[in-house]
Amino acid sequence: MAEVAFRNVTKRYGATLAVDDASVTVADNEFFCFFGPPLSGKSTILRLILGLEKPDSGEILIDDRAVNEVSAAARNIAMVFQNLALFPHMTAADTVRFPLVERREAPAKIEARLRDVAEKLHIGHILHKMLGQLSGGERQRVAIARALVRDPAAYLMDDPISALDARLREEARVALKRIQREAGRMLIYVTHDQEKAHVSGGPDGHFGRWRDPADWPPGGNL
Ligand SMILES: Nc1ncnc2c1ncn2[C@@H]1O[C@H](COP(=O)(O)OP(=O)(O)O)[C@@H](O)[C@H]1O
Ligand SMILES: [Mg+2]
User: Fold this and answer.
1) 13 CB under 6 A from ligand 1?
2) Which fold has domain 1-75+185-222?
3) Is pTM, for the whole model, over 0.85?
4) Could you tell me if the CB of 41 is within 6 A of ligand 1?
5) Closest atom, ligand 1, to C-alpha of 45
6) How far is the CA of 111 from the centre of ligand 1 (A)?
7) What's the pLDDT tens digit per position in 103-145?
8) Domain ranges of the chain
9) N or C: which end of the chain has fewer CB within 10 A?
10) What is the Cα Rg of the chain in Å?
11) How far, in Å, is the centroid of ligand 1 from the Cα of 41?
12) Does ligand 1 come within 6 angstroms of the Cβ of 87?
């Protein structure tokens, strides 16, 4: 169970107003997507939810509990970053396993989860390769698998499939929706591509709502 809410959240970097008085509630189990042009504050919003940044004012709530002072580690949220900070000399398999190894999960469970996400994201055939040997699109799928292998309260994805070619993007989109449904967890998905957001949100309605953060009415809910 998780519900994430922003109450009048503002974040500045020096003179730059990155997030301006944003209020939004994302419900449990929702596939929530929003889009905006570059530099509109999308990545900042995800970092605020994850706990890598603190708002200058306003409140962030997870399940009605204010988390402004709660560390990222204690929030149990998994994120796929826009710029993948992965290790070139690690195999894809070890990269995906890492979050579970770090949590000292049982080896049998780790291998089962690894097989499961590898199948869903079609990376079984590259698990033995070093990340440095993979294409950008393959690395991105590994990064998504690494987030999905855990069982966090919420998944955050920062434009995670933009580097994939058209066919793999479509596959990844379908996989993400299915995985989100099966996991029964919130997935917040950010993209700079309005069309992608609309297309993804289209036929089966799993994308809830989207809005350019720059258009958020002050203090208003989406
Ligand atoms: N660590 C930072 N230091 C200074 N300015 C930042 C930092 N992160 C983001 N910004 C600024 O905040 C604004 C929003 O950035 P960002 O959240 O990355 O937007 P988006 O993800 O929509 O491209 C931009 O003007 C950006 O330059
Ligand atoms: Mg960004």
Assistant:
1) yes
2) Rossmann fold (3.40.50)
3) no
4) yes
5) 17
6) 38
7) 999 999 999 999 999 998 889 999 999 999 998 888 888 988 9
8) 1-75+185-222
9) N
10) 17
11) 6
12) no
